[in-house]
Amino acid sequence: MNYERQLRKVIEFIGQHLDDELTLIQLSDIACFSKYHFHRIFTSYTGLSLQQYIRWLRLKRAAHQLIVDKEKSIIEIAINAGFESHESFTRAFKRSCGINPSEFRAKSSWQAWEKPPYCLPKQGEITMNVMIKQIKARRLAVLEHRGDPKGVGESVNKLIHWAKTQPMNLKPKPGEAFGFAYDDPKTTPPETFRFDLAITVPENLKLEGDIVEKYLPEGRYAVAMHKGSRENIGDTVYALYRDWLPSVNEELGDLPCIFAYYNFDHEVAETELLTECWLLLK
Question: What is the pLDDT at residue 118?
């Protein structure tokens, strides 16, 4: 699959439907990508999250309108750009170009709009060893974290507490504890962030309450090891999407990026943390 060509289709569609309500599912269908991977692939190529890109396009169009349509009020332009108030438009506009709409209308300074204001730092090409492994299915006990990523630590503690209260030893072996990374915390609003915490459990263990049953599907997975702080695990994830995936003749399955944990912060120094990043392949 030609990933750049598929993304150009999406970018063209966004431009043609900028005033419409554009959804992740709709745009991932146009790109022919799984919704679990589309937002990461988009960010790895553009340097912006999908919502940041759409907002930036609307703001840049509004900037043109401020200059060309001087008879239009700022609030009218703000509403046309999808903002509910003068204040929210002003905040977003100033965050993007450094000055508020009325100042921009007076000065017409275009330098700030030469490039997207939210671009992520460009990563040098990351050299990593990617292996394709056949992974067996696993029954998982899962705690679904929903909401602010700052609360993931509390969710981890809940899962650990539950595991310790079980009649059998559920301490996971290396590579048998997982994180299902539906969203990137750096590009997802805190209130919509989703992350599943999981440990492998036997079939006969009863699960109830906040702990739900899910299965890791058997299949072929692209696997890359991330060593060090998990704060910058996105470097490895985006390198998989941006550098490795377009270079091979593989397509992604319908499953989010998965982290397989081989050790934990309370066991080793941060520099020695080992986390595999898994992508299910078709």
Answer: 45
